[in-house]
Input
Amino acid sequence: MTAPRYDVLGIGNAIVDVIARADDDFLVAQNMQKGGMALIDEARAQAIYDAMGPAVEISGGSAANTIVGLASFGARAAFVGKVKNDELGRIFAHDIRKAGVDFDTRPAADGPSTARCYIMVTPDGERTMNTYLGAAQNLHPADLDEAAIAASAIVYLEGYLWDPKDAKDAFLKAAAVAHGAGRMVALTLSDSFCVDRYRSEFIALLRDGVVDLLFANEAELKSLYETSDFDAGVAALRNDAKLAAVTRSEKGCVVVSRNGVEAVPAAPLDNLVDTTGAGDLFAAGFLFGLARNRDHVTAGRLGALAAAEVIQHLGARPEGSLKDLAGQRGLPA
Amino acid sequence: MTAPRYDVLGIGNAIVDVIARADDDFLVAQNMQKGGMALIDEARAQAIYDAMGPAVEISGGSAANTIVGLASFGARAAFVGKVKNDELGRIFAHDIRKAGVDFDTRPAADGPSTARCYIMVTPDGERTMNTYLGAAQNLHPADLDEAAIAASAIVYLEGYLWDPKDAKDAFLKAAAVAHGAGRMVALTLSDSFCVDRYRSEFIALLRDGVVDLLFANEAELKSLYETSDFDAGVAALRNDAKLAAVTRSEKGCVVVSRNGVEAVPAAPLDNLVDTTGAGDLFAAGFLFGLARNRDHVTAGRLGALAAAEVIQHLGARPEGSLKDLAGQRGLPA
Output
């Protein structure tokens, strides 16, 4: 096995976030499930945009945010995802490349426009998401650079890829290529509603060894094993997953492996502004720790640090250098 | 004179801001004049965008920011400015309308794309701007709704309109229509380099009574009268302007009229993040005070309050309700 070219290569939906503040009444009036991610069509996207307040546009996408976080820690990182060659697609490509990420997926020349996620941030900092997948759903196995995947220590995949058929095929191909090269495959469950759509398939990915490392939050874990008991979910996960990190918001996270369960506290917060990207950035820190051969608790602390940074401002990408932040907090980076 | 339909109608360049953090070395390497606004062509816009870091997109434009601030105070406000019917143009239109502003200027169907301002925010919070005017420069006198102008208590114009020939003609037509209806005409000098380009014309606008109320910052005032002495600038302004408000950053502002000069302190700050929009939002508060028949010092305090809000976050539009903020601070709104 040759030395990896990338610490982590991520594959996900390439999305520009359209973020506005909203109150709970707006969510109710719009029939939005608070805290969730709903897939929407173009007509609904237009209706939501017409109804929502003044917004800011910031590049997003779950796995893309994670990969940008990894680059911010100083990791060598690449991203695969589909935009259209339109204004938002060029914005997405600019932002991820200038964050230090290799991004070489060819944009679509025609077809649906670049994906947008309409995010309502309520006064409690919670985010509620509505995603128009657009061009992102046309990510195809042929978009994968097999050599790049084989040359990545970890391939990181988002559960949201399971929604579009071609993207799911790309997911499975990437996992096969990675394992063929002796690399690690990581998956984030993305969202409890996403888990609800694909529960048995996601469990099979763990049991069949397609996925070596799982990221989930508490709600996703409970949805995965259809339990309201966190400890029961963790016990089930220990049987199925080689390694998993389960985030619990202000309660920190637990790292679950065949050897046991280790708890890591959350990082302190001054001001919760917008929870968008908390899980994505936790994954960035944790993956960075693994890529640098740190122990699980240190990896968890790096994850907690990155998550805390991103929820203290609007948008799901870090505003400053996570490498510098880790250094200031005495964490290895 | 009938009761006005709008408290303030603003005319300016319709621009989407593309905002990134940068250090001083970047400004030097890119030959950017720190704190200024440079007009750039499309090739330079592309070169700057290729060089600058990950960005966020937030609707901007000097007079547009002011008008959004007025709406946030609860004023009836309208904006006139030209976008193209492209993605950024639709973003601009959405954001200003959802801020409560009437915006009915027909977008261009072809020609250059919607204007962008590439803004570098340095660690000291100072912003350095590079504007590609694009579709904005095609604002034409025919785009004006004369009835709306005649029905506005105050027409607010930005000095930047003096750059494109047609926009300048629109400016002069708007001022004539407003005065024909017995309304007030206000002008912001926009930028000391803009003043440098049109000094004698701007002074003539004051002396000829085309402009009733002038907004300037200290640098613009000094540029206008080619003096390094602030008091000399104020004395000259007293001779030329019926009413003027001159902002001085942390030193607050002075309100200059034929009757005298009144100083108003700046509002307290917790955390300076991005000075973009400070002058625009000062003008919003001051104009709101005038529209509500407040005295000059109260108007100045409303301006200071709005300026302080906008420089404590990224972007040049208020994030919360200025009406609520004024209420919390015991100011009339």
Chain B is about 40% helix and 20% strand. Chain B has one domain: 6-328. Residues 6-328 of chain B form a domain with the UDP-N-acetylmuramoyl-L-alanine:D-glutamate ligase fold (CATH 3.40.1190.20). The interface with chain A takes residues 21, 49-50, 52-59, 68, 86-88, 91, 94-96, 98-99, 314-315, 317, 319 of chain B (CB under 8 Å).
